[in-house]
Amino acid sequence: MAVEVVILDIDGTLVLSNDAHAQAWIETFAKYGYEVPFEQVRPLMGMGGDHVIPKLVPELNSKEGTGKAIAARRKELILNKFSPQLVGAPGSRELVFKMQESGLHLVVASSASHEELDILLKVAQVDDLLKEVTSSDDAQASKPAPDIIEAALKKAQITPDKVVMLGDTPYDIESAGKAGVRVIAMRCGGFSDEQLSGALAIYDDPDDLLRHYDSSVLAPNAKQVLGI
């Protein structure tokens, strides 16, 4: 089945933000008396806070008490401290434009909140191009749960067999897989090829995919089909 819809992750895929998110978690946990090392936090980037918080401090959750305060403080740091430091991944705008030019229907699926997502789309310079979005606000559970991907499929009104997702973490691959969607992965999120081994294909970044677009599964005349 040829690809008709592309679901887009943003953090780590179109914006080089995973290290900033890790640092925001570290600073926030420290403020509340929990010392968590970078090497413990960084591999969890790509998950939403509802998963990150209990994985780092099992007695906490993002819905109540200290865990809820940590989630709110982390969001505040991203919005007010770290967002000015973020940069788009190479080729993000050009790739989005190319996919639209090829006739693909694009829908954003991010574990970020709508407030964070608005900033991220501006950083990637695609805020004028991408208007259909789903975020953590549209799902009961964030990645690696399939909720956000399923919300994107519902928004696009399409079945998974005609869809591919662009992502950068094992959690994108896991969440998309649970929803029946295959993933093209980007190394610019900081994960190894081994960690991304469940992907349909792996590229360095959006620019790398753009340079190989005509031989990718996204090309209008692609011989590849989903399900191979």
TrEMBL record:
Keyword Transmembrane: no
Molecular functions per Gene Ontology: phosphoglycolate phosphatase activity
Pfam families cross-referenced by the UniProt entry: HAD_2 (PF13419)
GO CC annotation: cytosol
Swiss-Prot/TrEMBL keywords: Hydrolase
SUPFAM superfamilies on file: HAD-like
GO process terms (BP): DNA repair
UniProt-recorded name of the protein: HAD family hydrolase
Phylogenetic lineage: Bacteria, Bacillati, Cyanobacteriota, Cyanophyceae, Nostocales
